[in-house]
Amino acid sequence: MAAQAYADALAIFVIEPEWLSSPDCDSGHVEFALACVSELRAALAERGLPLLVRMGSAVAVLAQLQNERAFTHLLSHEETGAAWSYARDQQIARWCKSAGVQWHEFQQNGVIRGLRNRTGWAQRWQARMDAPLHLLEGAFCAAVPLDQPPLPTLASLGLSPHGKTLQAAGERAARRTLSSFVQVRGYGYRKALSSPLSAETGCSRLSPHLAFGTISMRTVHQATELAIRNTPERELAYALRGFAGRLRWHCHFMQKLEDEPSVEFRNFARVCDGLREDAFNTDYFEAWCAGRTGYPMVDACMRSLRATGWLNFRMRAMLVSFASYHLWLHWRHTGLFLARQFLDYEPAIHWSQMQMQSGTTGINTLRMYSPTKQAQDQDPQGLFIRRWVPELAKVPLPYLAAPWKMDPSVQRMAGCILGHDYPKPLVDDKAAMRAAKDRMYALRKTPQAQTEAAQVQDRHGSRKSGLPASGRKPKPQAPRASEIPSPQGDLFL
Ligand SMILES: Cc1cc2nc3c(=O)[nH]c(=O)nc-3n(C[C@H](O)[C@H](O)[C@H](O)COP(=O)(O)OP(=O)(O)OC[C@H]3O[C@@H](n4cnc5c(N)ncnc54)[C@H](O)[C@@H]3O)c2cc1C
């Protein structure tokens, strides 16, 4: 919108080799981004603004553009990204200074740049989210279009196919997803959250859209608050309040990386340094990545994630807990693999969560999930396991969460010989959990751990008293009707 104030405006999307070659990038991310750009290009063209797509390092592309058509202002949003994009931003800042270009960065969510500590953070988040939406109206004073070759494909970028069935990309899909959730799908949200079966449609599925910016956090927040205020259904309002809280978590977790970029690589609690570094078992890692650990719920979740690019929170936490505690794998390696699998990969949330579920933040309760208990609780009929681990299709339900308990005759009847058709468990569940607990609790008792916990809490912990629960705060100004996404028939795909 700010670009409308300038004569000769041009929009540009840069496909950076640093992104494509970063170890957290997957061709699924690239395909999703290109589909979003394609829709955006058509939408901007209708308003007279050409969207250039260029390949190359950002500074090189800007310098070339400056030669083709001198410009004086660069507009972008603020990015809280991985190390490579942080380095890129610093290079751009230096280039702009030397080229006499003014760079205006706009806030895009509730993350606050240059924050000293978290006091008052929640109130500032609320104020930003309640501020009026910026609606694009009218046309641009656009520059004469430059050469616009067609968008690249994965093949032309030299990327391999990802083999996933991805959610639909682009702003229209994001708005459909939002409206179907706040009006219909949100009803059972709180109950649907934990099981991978119900979460598939019962969660909002907005995460890739928030990660790729096809919808703003403020739009989602305001549509949710409006639905809470307007619905006569107490159940829906209650469910949506739970959802509204998670929108704040999104920015709360992002703020951590913004404030301490090193947590992409380094433990929040330095007392955890050395805990897992020397214990990396490649065979365990490969079995976990392939969904062949011998624990059906772990394997079903991993295979489902690899096929769809999405998994619900509880099952993500279980996958990481299993890798970090049962298999004692370092979160950086498992985190890179998961980053490539999650279509919604958002570095700041991802690395904070990887550390939280691995016990290295120093401040959060240690949560170790038993995969057999999770199977019984979240997939009691075995539907999810049978769908994603077909080797176990005929295993009787009482054995499905723990097939190693089948004696040889049951294995034969079920057509599933352990060690042949399906792996034996990599480790013993109870023994592995006990060993992990002993190590983690012993570490947490040390004076260094306790001193560091206080420091991490001070820097990154939420100030609970300052968090107004959604719905109990003063009423924000109602958004205009045109700002609320209209209902659509389909769900989110
Ligand atoms: C190890 C691990 C890694 C994760 N990595 C990512 C990631 O890269 N990107 C990502 O968006 N989420 C991540 N999450 C958080 C969460 O699992 C996803 O946000 C959620 O599953 C996305 O589905 P949804 O949009 O349907 O969620 P909903 O339940 O509908 O939630 C709505 C939105 O709230 C935010 N949200 C929900 N739960 C959390 C949470 N625990 N922490 C922070 N924000 C949250 C997300 O923006 C989400 O889109 C991770 C969780 C774990 C345990």
Could you explain the architecture of this structure?
The chain is mainly alpha-helical and 493 residues long. It folds into three domains: 105 residues, HUPs (Rossmann fold); 98 residues, Serine Threonine Protein Phosphatase 5, Tetratricopeptide repeat (Alpha Horseshoe), CATH 1.25.40.80; 178 residues, DNA Cyclobutane Dipyrimidine Photolyase, subunit A, domain 3 (Orthogonal Bundle), CATH 1.10.579.10. The protein is 49% helix and 5% strand. The protein has 22 helices and six strands. Strands 1-6 form a two-stranded parallel sheet. Strands 2-3 form a two-stranded parallel ribbon. The protein has a two-stranded parallel ribbon with strand order 4-5. The two termini are 28 Å apart. It binds flavin-adenine dinucleotide (FAD). The site of flavin-adenine dinucleotide has 27 residues, from helix 9, helix 11, helix 14 and helix 16.
